[in-house]
């Protein structure tokens, strides 16, 4: 006879929004410059160059969103950056509002809008969810949520201003990534950064019914020339550059998890992007 799992199963007690906050706060401790002042000052041009280098590569998430946005509609792009989404979406929608909290990103965005001769993008300088905006048909936030500790407020405001669909694009790290394993040891957390798994569960706990699309392509594989380089990468990621306290553990972890071939150390696949979309009920 099948066991009665209902009796034995532990109640689901994970507080996903608290875990999200913890991960954002740990990341902020590792890189305090990200939350102080305009992090993108001196970096916005480099970001734009990296975005341009990816232009034209297959992107199933982008294709899905562009297909979903109906001509004649309005789109709100939260954390628009240099316009990677806002500018092409302006060719499909009637109007786009680009929200961003970084003056440096907005200045590159303005230049890109002018260079493309686009006339239907409005810019709203400010931080989500505090910034005030009107309702739009679609609401998109692509890789702009990682610094926001209150994911519930972020998502609830998206849901409030969208008439048709909300799109949240986030990285989806492999649950068994080296970074996640190290986070378990160093921080007692199951993950190293906020991302898909936590965001998706927060949405479920909010009573939303999110759909998911994973990007076809994973992030480019990472290779380290030496084990010392690999240790340095891990230490940088966890803000341990000046401490030797965990070196033995980190070296052991890397010897176990990296594959050594052709003279270098190959990291297992780490991350891909995921699109979470939902309709405001
Ligand atoms: C990694 S960039 C992504 C830009 C763009 N969405 C893309 O996919 O190319 C993140 C952008 O979000 C902005 N950002 C981060 N948190 C934000 C917030 N709470 N409100 C508004 N903008 C935010 C940053 O200033 C930056 O321009």
What's the topology here?
Layout: H1 5-8, H2 16-30, H3 44-54, H4 60-68, E1 74-78, H5 86-90, E2 95-100, H6 103-115, E3 121-125, E4 136-142, H7 151-161, E5 162-173, H8 178-187, H9 196-205, E6 211-218, E7 223-224, H10 227-237, H11 247-257, E8 259-261, E9 264-266, E10 271-278
Parallel strand pairs: 1-2, 1-4, 2-3, 4-5
Antiparallel strand pairs: 5-10, 6-10, 7-9, 8-9
Helix pairs in contact: 2-9, 10-11
The structure holds S-adenosylmethionine.
Model description:
The protein has 281 residues and is of the alpha/beta class. The protein has one domain: Vaccinia Virus protein VP39 (Rossmann fold). Helix content is 39%, strand content 21%. It has eleven helices and ten strands. Strand 1, helix 5 (86-90) and strand 2 form a beta-alpha-beta unit. Helix 2 (16-30) packs antiparallel against helix 9 (196-205). The mean pLDDT is 93.
């Amino acid at each position: 006879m099948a066991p009665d799992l209902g009796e034995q199963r532990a109640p689901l007690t994970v507080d996903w929004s608290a875990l999200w906050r913890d991960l954002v706060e740990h990341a902020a401790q590792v890189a305090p410059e990200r939350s102080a002042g305009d992090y993108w000052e001196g970096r916005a041009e480099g970001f734009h160059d990296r975005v341009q280098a990816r232009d034209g590569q297959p992107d199933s998430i982008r294709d899905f969103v562009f297909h979903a946005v109906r001509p004649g509609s309005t789109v709100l792009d939260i954390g628009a950056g240099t316009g990677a989404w806002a500018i092409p979406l302006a060719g499909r929608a009637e109007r786009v509002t680009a929200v961003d909290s970084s003056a440096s990103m907005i200045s590159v965005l303005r230049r890109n809008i002018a260079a493309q001769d686009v006339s239907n993008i409005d810019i709203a300088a400010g931080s989500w969810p505090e910034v005030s905006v009107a309702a739009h048909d679609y609401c998109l936030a692509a890789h702009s949520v990682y610094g926001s500790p209150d994911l519930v407020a972020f998502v609830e405001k998206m849901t409030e201003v969208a008439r048709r669909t909300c799109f949240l694009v986030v990285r989806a790290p492999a649950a068994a990534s080296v970074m996640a394993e190290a986070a378990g040891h160093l921080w007692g957390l199951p993950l190293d950064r906020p991302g898909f798994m936590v965001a998706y569960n927060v949405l479920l706990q909010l009573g939303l019914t999110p759909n998911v699309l994973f990007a076809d392509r994973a992030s480019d594989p990472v290779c380290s020339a030496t084990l010392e380089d690999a240790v340095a990468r891990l230490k940088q990621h966890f803000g341990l550059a000046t401490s030797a306290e965990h070196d033995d553990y980190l070296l052991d972890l890397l010897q176990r998890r990296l594959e050594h071939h052709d003279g270098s150390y190959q990291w297992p696949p780490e991350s891909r992007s995921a699109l979470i979309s939902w309709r405001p009920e």
